[in-house]
């Protein structure tokens, strides 16, 4: 239609930080791609370490799963600006260090800057925080993020669907997180359906 401004494709910012459970971030990228959502990925140096320990993926393999990949030091990248429209941001997994930086608006790298932008633009921010047990400091940081409108979602498995593999546990948590961002994972078992 002449003169019409096309909506930008649905974009999701994905941050992978250095908590154990990089599988959550990997599956989120795979599900988003299947759903036709454009992914913008930033992986912290500690996230690259867990990739090395926990998967057989190279840094290049992981990068190939996203549509656009940024260096954590590239704080001038598109996702560092609120004018770059996105559907929101998922940090999976989210370390306590990254949680704390987000909680106190410390945009010290591109991941935490993009998360701060997501909050300031009142977009959806979902953090799959992974640590246990929790200190008062961790809980206070979670409270601060929640008070700013972010969603703290530790990837705690549900057993009522009788998962038979680690992949199923991961998929279920990731699908629930993507639900919060308006991205539907087809064929995901849901209670009552
Ligand atoms: C194998 C491995 C597992 C880790 N697991 C966790 C974890 O589950 N939660 C956490 O908060 N930090 C964890 N850490 C520590 C973080 O990687 C560390 O605090 C790092 O500074 C986080 O940096 P980032 O937030 O920039 O990714 C782990 C580190 C390694 C090497």
UniProtKB/TrEMBL annotation:
GO terms for molecular function: flavin prenyltransferase activity. Keywords: Flavoprotein, FMN, Prenyltransferase, Transferase. Flavin prenyltransferase that catalyzes the synthesis of the prenylated FMN cofactor (prenyl-FMN) for 4-hydroxy-3-polyprenylbenzoic acid decarboxylase UbiD. The prenyltransferase is metal-independent and links a dimethylallyl moiety from dimethylallyl monophosphate (DMAP) to the flavin N5 and C6 atoms of FMN. Residues 11-177 form the Flavoprotein domain. Its EC number is 2.5.1.129. The keyword Coiled coil does not apply. It is an enzyme of class 2 (transferase). It holds the Pfam family Flavoprotein. Belongs to the UbiX/PAD1 family. SUPFAM superfamilies: Homo-oligomeric flavin-containing Cys decarboxylases, HFCD (SSF52507). InterPro entries: Flavin_trans-like (IPR036551), Flavoprotein (IPR003382), UbiX-like (IPR004507). Dimethylallyl phosphate binds at residues 160, 176. It comes from Nocardia veterana. Transmembrane segments: none annotated. Gene3D superfamilies: Flavin prenyltransferase-like (3.40.50.1950). This is Flavin prenyltransferase UbiX. FMN binds at residues 18-20, 44, 95-98, 130. It comes from the Bacteria. The lineage of its organism: Bacteria, Bacillati, Actinomycetota, Actinomycetes, Mycobacteriales. It catalyses: dimethylallyl phosphate + FMNH2 = prenylated FMNH2 + phosphate.
